[in-house]
Amino acid sequence: MLLPHQPERDPTELNVKPDSTVVNLGRHLLAEFYDCNSNILNNVQIIEDVMTEAAIACGATVVEKRFHHFSPFGVSGVVIISESHLAIHTWPEYGYAAVDLFTCGNSCDPKVAYDYLQEKLHAGSAFYSELKRGLMNLGTQKMIESPFHLEAQMATSTAGAAVIGSQKGEEI
Amino acid sequence: MLLPHQPERDPTELNVKPDSTVVNLGRHLLAEFYDCNSNILNNVQIIEDVMTEAAIACGATVVEKRFHHFSPFGVSGVVIISESHLAIHTWPEYGYAAVDLFTCGNSCDPKVAYDYLQEKLHAGSAFYSELKRGLMNLGTQKMIESPFHLEAQMATSTAGAAVIGSQKGEEI
Q1: What does the angle CA B88 – CA A98 – CA A125 come to, to the nearest 5 degrees?
Q2: Paired sense of beta strands A149-157 and A125-137, if any
Q3: Residue B4's pLDDT is what?
Q4: pLDDT tens for each residue of B102-133
Q5: Which residues, other chains included, contact B161 with Cβ-Cβ below 8 Å and sequence gap of 6+?
Q6: Which of B3, B87, B147 sits opposite A87 (nearest CB)?
Q7: pLDDT value, residue B20
Q8: B104 catalytic, yes or no?
Q9: What pLDDT score was predicted for residue A11?
Q10: With 0-12 CB in 10 A as exposed, 13-18 as middle and 19+ as buried, what is A86?
Q11: Left (φ > 0), alpha (ψ -120 to 50) or beta: where does A35 sit?
Q12: Between chains, do B80 and A66 touch, taking CB under 8 Å as contact?
């Protein structure tokens, strides 16, 4: 039996800060990959393979997946995981891929999927923004009605990562 | 033959500002729906239907779709459209749904899908944040390496919409 994407109400399964009663149901990494290998970006089988491998590498459980090649260029695809989803859209003609890595619970880490994809897409540079989705008051078990919170933004390259913003925890 | 999700390089097919040579390949609405009907959120067939209808209502072309019900609660699903994708994750136990509406080109409007979903999920309140993904210099046909840009944020209710931020065009 598959677990629900929000596994249980056990606080240890949520992204709980020790000193806080506010948790977020989801972590969402919006990733921008630049200067990628265009042949890889236009190959639907490779994209499906690396996205599936990225899901597994980050600790996720693959539930369903769908990938599609567009004519003349581009691939779109989604991997539904027990912990939410990973999605990609590629523009081979610009060497660019837009990727979303949305996970719930603490059993997987979307940043691992990001690092894996940056390597496998041969991305010369990349950005990610980590957002908190679905803020909840753990004490009242009520949702906190607000837009997403920006947890962090990073630029990364093969030379390593560099912080480009320090808006950790800021609501926007 | 299906069109690519980035239809062509014709500037009129991109989100071009008349006075700008910077365009964005994608529009991404991150939507948070609160106080929804929990029975709807936990019904995989209804969620698949309303997400598919939302795609069609906003002018998108459905390519593939996958929906999954988790035990004991929750639905995850994705509709791949020619113009990118729509994704949903529901937490019926909290009356909450996290939705992503990612479109390319000007043939469809993700805000229409947002409005449709707010009604069909019986959401008492909702937020959306509209992001620009994939900024490109139209003159050089080169990608501009940066995080997403925040185009707008809105809170909406059945009583109407209210602007909660004025960060239109701001880079974050």
Answers
A1: 145
A2: antiparallel
A3: 43
A4: 999 989 999 999 999 999 999 999 999 999 99
A5: B154, B155
A6: B87
A7: 57
A8: yes
A9: 41
A10: buried
A11: left
A12: yes
| Residue A2 confidence (pLDDT) | 36
The percentage of chain B sitting over the pLDDT mark of 90, rounded to a whole number, equals 67
Query: Which among B45, B50, B46, B33 is positioned nearest to B91, based on CA atoms?
Result: B33
By C-alpha distance, the chain B residue nearest A163 is B147
Instruction: Fold for B23-167, please state it.
Output: S-adenosylmethionine decarboxylase (3.60.90)
B85 is a catalytic site residue = no
Report the candidate in B95, B106, B101 with the shortest Cα–Cα distance to residue B7.
B106
- Give the pLDDT confidence score for residue A7 in this predicted structure: 35
**Minimal C-alpha gap between B2 and chain A (Å):** 7
Residues of chain A with confidence (pLDDT) below 50 = 1-13, 163, 166-172
The structure tokens 């890595």 sit at: A101
Annotate A6-62 with DSSP letters as a single string. S--S-GGGS---TT-SEEEEEEEEEEEEES--HHHHT-HHHHHHHHHHHHHHTT--E
C-alpha A100/C-alpha B54 separation (Å) is: 20
| Chain centroid to CA B141 | 25
The CA–CA distances, whole Å, from B25 to A33, A72, A98, A130 equal 13, 16, 10, 20
Tokens of B85: 């994708």
* CB contact burial B18-28 (16+ within 10 A = b; e otherwise): eeeeebbbbbb
A71 within 8 A of B4, measured Cβ to Cβ: yes
- Closest chain B residue to the Cα of A165, Cα to Cα: B172
3-state secondary structure of A70: coil
Residues of chain B with pLDDT under 70: 1-20, 158-172
CB A36 within 8 A of CB A99: no
